[in-house]
Amino acid sequence: MRAMDVMTSKVITVDENASVTTVAKLLAERGISAVPVVDSENRVIGMVSEGDLLHRAETGTERRQSWWLEMMASTNQLTGDYIKSHSGNVKDVMTRDVLSVTETTSVADIAILLETNRIKRVPVLRDGKLVGIVSRANLVRALAMTINEPTSSTEADDRTIRDNLLAELKAQRWAEVAPANITVKDGVVHLWSSYLSEQEKRALVVAAENIPGVRRVEDHMRPVPAYLLA
Known about the structure:
By secondary structure, the chain is an alpha/beta fold. It has two domains: about 5-140, CBS-domain; about 150-230, 2-Layer Sandwich (Histidine-containing Protein, Chain: A). The chain has nine helices and ten strands. It has helices at about 5, 20-30, 65-70, 75-85, 90-95, 105-115, 135-140, 155-170, 200-210; strands at about 35-40, 45-50, 100, 120-125, 130-135, 180-185, 190, 195, 215-220, 220-225. The chain has a three-stranded mixed sheet. The radius of gyration is 21 Å and the shape is elongated. The model has no long low-confidence stretch (mean pLDDT about 80).
């Protein structure tokens, strides 16, 4: 299984000239913990996470050091901390050294990358441009605990079921389901997407049930939060 099989393709992004308050509202309203910063060519130049907004002057949480630590700290460190806690521009608070993967990076390598670097997500690039993002949640949904096992005929059949279901949904105007929200294990389809109505939810289940080889459909779907519909 590779990044392209589990990534979220519709990625919310901002540019470096966005305001810190805009990003803070975006993270809060969308229920996400970070957002990539991209340039005009959709190349990732940074990442803004909750951690980058943790120490802010507006909330009285800026870093405060004892006088002797301040004496030991370099001018660059002190000015850097001040800019990050007081600037209203994304380009001043974002993390610039962003790790990334390609669409063909294995899920096993991504899991190791997230764990060893203690990060929660990694952008997926194609020819240097952003095409998706893989988070820890994506790996859990993809049943990442099985990633290092040899490919069996059952796994091959599961892949065929998943590909056929994705093709069926892609052909339907009403279906907007990210590939990362569909996993198949031993002929059992797991649906994780959000839905607007009970009818849409039922249609997704029916589509999965009608794919040859499907033994059962497990419904993990949740309704779209009401505040996003307002």
